[in-house]
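Protocol step 4 of 5: obtain the predicted structure for the target chain.
Materials: sequence only (see below). No template structures provided, no constraints applied. The aim of this step is simply to have a reference model before the mutagenesis design in step 5. Sequence pasted as it appears in the construct record:
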Amino acid sequence: MAATSWPARLRRWTYLTHRWCGVAGCLLMALWFASGVVMLFVGYPKLTPWDRLAALPALEAGSKLPGPPPQARAGALVLNAASGQPRYLLRQKDGSLLSLDAASGTTQTQFDRDAALRSARLFRPGAEAHYLGQLHEDRWTHARSLDAHRPLHQIMLDDAAHTLVYVSSHTGEVVMQATRLQRGWNYVGAWLHWLYVFKNQPVDPVWTWTVIALSAGCVLVACSGIVVGLWRWRFGRPYKSGSHSPFAPGWMRWHHLLGLGFAAITLTWIFSGLMSMNPLGIFSAAQRPDLARYAAVPAQGGLLAAPTGAILQSLADSGFRPVELEWLTLAGQPFVLARDAHDGTRLVLAIDGQGQRLLVAQHWSRATLERAGARLMDAPLVKVERMEQYDAYYYRRDSEAMMGGAQRQLPVLRLRFADAGDTLVYLNLQSGQVELSADRAQRIGRWLFSLLHSWDLRPMLAAGWLREAVLILLSIGGLALSGSGVVIGWRRLRRKFGARA
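Step 4 output (structure tokens):
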């Protein structure tokens, strides 16, 4: 018998790959399509910056609070009254958090059940709070940003949304919330879509590579399906049945027709989902902005030399009512960034260098940010632009989206550097903080993941319900394609193993 030619072997292996990988992959793809539709309207639980600020008690002017205690000079410092009284929250160099009484400077290392309940009631005034216990992590608290707050106190609120809140055991702050609607729909939404059923910790290599392997396998299923579908379709003279598909009416023909119609969008979404996992770090930045050099904290410390009570009074005199103060440094200049309950900001700076005379400003000057921004990278700063509108990389999503917790305020300065990665850095004119940086690899990742997966260019987002309707229709098509594959696979497995039995 003559040896089979390699084109024939390739063709046979393509058929077998699609058949048997599809048996396993179609069910997973069907789950992804169904859960993706849910995610259009209900996102994974998060505590957005504006929701957190809106729940904080105001820091009242007229208090005789002294300046931060000496130990506060060793890390990032914030003042708020989330736990019921003004407290400094110090993030130390090792990432751990320390809570200091603002009046006495005494340290509180742990917040117990009663303190957690008090914080929860302040977070949602008028709602009854029920303590559920303490935990390290559950299905709603995988975020690495919560690591410094663990273990977490879990409290159920009797508000209209039946909100489940999590309180830090180290700072007494509410750090996560999940409404009943989010919890219920996420079992068939983001929690299912991201395969969090397999995730056991914030950094979980097993989960990461499981998702990468499954996504890559489904990409193979989609690619082989497109090839097989085109091979079997007669573009010229039809088959004897009069159809251009060789299959008799039934599931196989529907799978063939749906595949030709929706295989491209299926492949696009599965491939972009794979890209979201940043396999092998292909979208990681080669060089990141040097935030320490941008701040240029003096050796003797970078705190504004002024009593906290004086800072609060200066803000009150300017008509600003803060709920949080943050001590920062920009290009060696200490200042306080104040935030109010509406996510507004003010800058407090010392005029005389001693903190005796304070200036409250709404934003930094462009010249100051340009000089400081030039220190961010070991490369020439080649272009600076003031942006009053969002661009393709710096934009804001609604709170239900995966990136919906990013504030992305305007206006910003966009800085372009002549480094190997052609890095873009966006500086917030109000706060002076780096909002976003993206080198060439990260920008490519934005197109291969965010655009292909979420259709999030500005004109697309502006289309509103029309964008959502198109995404739903395409998802239904992909779900029908995957569902038909599930039926075909189940029948084939039943025939195969039934015959053996």
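Step 4 remarks: The first helix runs from residue 6 to 39. The longest strand covers residues 322-330.
Proceed to step 5.
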